[in-house]
Amino acid sequence: MKKFLPWIKGHIVAVILIAFAIIALPAMIFVSAGMSSSTRDKAQSEVDDGLRDINRISVRFIAPSADPDVPPVEFDRAPNAATIERLKTYIEGLRAQTDGVVEVATERSRAGREPFLEGVFPEPEPSRETALRQEANRAWLDAHVALLDDAEIGAPPSEDEVLRDLQGRRSREEGRLLNLQEEGARLTAEQAAEIAEILVERRLALYRDRALELAFYASPDVFVGVEEWTEQGLPEIEQIWEWQQLLWVHESIIAALVEANLDPLTQLVRRAPSGAVKRVLSIEVDGWDVRFREPSAPAGDISAPIMPDYEASITGRAAFPTRPNPLYDARYATIELIANSAEIPGIVGAFASSNFMTVIDMDLESVDRTEDEAEGYAYGGADHVIKATLQVEVLLLRTWTVDYMPPSVRAALGAPPMEGAEPEQIEMQPEPTGRGGARGRG
Fold it and tell me: Does pLDDT of 66 surpass 80?
């Protein structure tokens, strides 16, 4: 120790500085730690303030509605991940829902319908085109016969059928009565009257039996304009397309009338004597002829709202040719029928419930059933029958019909061209003089 004292005295300044450093070191460490904690707290506070500022930001979100008549859902919320994820989930669910509605609507409109002639739509192969155009008219006529047969719709027994049956019955009855008498004897007046009464009852029985086989009465000639092709040359593809649309409309109408005859409890088709619809007198569809029309402007986006036009129809549904739209085509049919007067509301309702159809006008008038009964129509003795004339709007959704449209029809209706195809240029042709289809309005 004594050895260090002279050194300490000689270096007193250095000793003081070393001592100060040793004493200050813990304090410096403490101060440094305190400064680090303060900086951290300040930074955390600034972050928290920033997050609070972000959360206080309000953004207006707008979620679309599935129903165009219902306004979209609007709300103000902070643009955080949870809100955006919920909105995304809602929109995806809405899209799936609307896609499902479109699919259901398409299947309802289509109802399993197919072209009446395979290979003709949308474009026949060049090697088969002539043969298909030759077959088209006969196939169209046959399709209407099959339409009625499949639905168990038909006519009363023909005069020839009734006559053959009654002649056979008369021969049997005469033989029975004459066998009871001496050889060479003739029928008495009483016996002749007895046979006449038996034949009357037999004729009525034939009519009743036939009625019990039918959903209602109709024959292929009730479809106005469905007849042999009489014009020169083969029908063009556009004409065959018109035949196809007419058949689809006829199928929709027949399906609605059959539905009107369903028993409310059993859902089985009632027969003509007990059904709402007894007989169809005629079905006439207003015709189109796209062969003589300039191409329409594109009909627009299928998702865009379709504004109602009450000058075109009392339903407000406007379509080709007045105002084409991308969602549907509208055809108008006039139907004359004999019906149970008490079930007219059910018949009107059957059109709406069976497909996209609306009765837009109706006239009712009395009918003399005795004349019809004399011709073999058995309407059911307890039912009061009337003649009803209905005008029906029939919608065909393009979500399925467009797949069958020939290119020239697509152009005329303002539908988009087939994928990869150039827009069709329609060549105007002279008006025909024959019929070969439904009557048109222009």
Answer: no
The reply to whether 102 falls in a domain is no
Q: Angle, nearest 10°, between helix axes 159-178 and 189-211?
A: 140
Share of the chain above pLDDT 70, in %: 75
pLDDT of 127-165, one tens digit each?
999 999 999 999 999 999 999 999 999 999 999 999 999
Domain containing 164 equals 159-213
Distance separating the N- and C-terminal Cα atoms of the chain = 131
Residues 296 and 328 in one domain: yes
Q: Rounded to whole angstroms, how far apart are CA atoms 85 and 69?
A: 26
Any domain includes 266: yes
CA-nearest of 290, 287, 292, 309 to 414 is 290
**Which candidate, 217, 153, 245, 160, places its Cα nearest to that of 440?**
245
Query: Which pLDDT score, from 0 to 100, does residue 420 have?
Result: 60
Residue 131 within a domain: yes
**Neighbouring C-beta atoms of residue 289, cutoff 10 Å:** 18
- The residue that leads in pLDDT, 179 or 267, is 267
Give me the pLDDT at residue 6, please. Answer: 52
Strand duo 277-285 + 73-77: pairing? unpaired
Same domain (yes/no): 115, 196: no
Using DSSP's 3-state secondary structure scheme, residue 418 falls into coil
Contact 349, 439 (CB under 8 A): no
Q: Is residue 28 part of a domain?
A: no
Choice between 332 and 383, residue whose per-residue pLDDT is larger: 332
Q: How many domains does the chain have?
A: 2
172 and 201 together in one domain: yes
Say if residue 134 is in the same domain as residue 232: yes
**145 and 167 fall within a common domain:** no
- Residue 410 CB contacts under 8 Å (≥ 6 apart), including other chains: 402, 416, 417, 418, 424
pLDDT of 323 above 50: yes
**385-397 and 328-340: which strand pairing?**
antiparallel
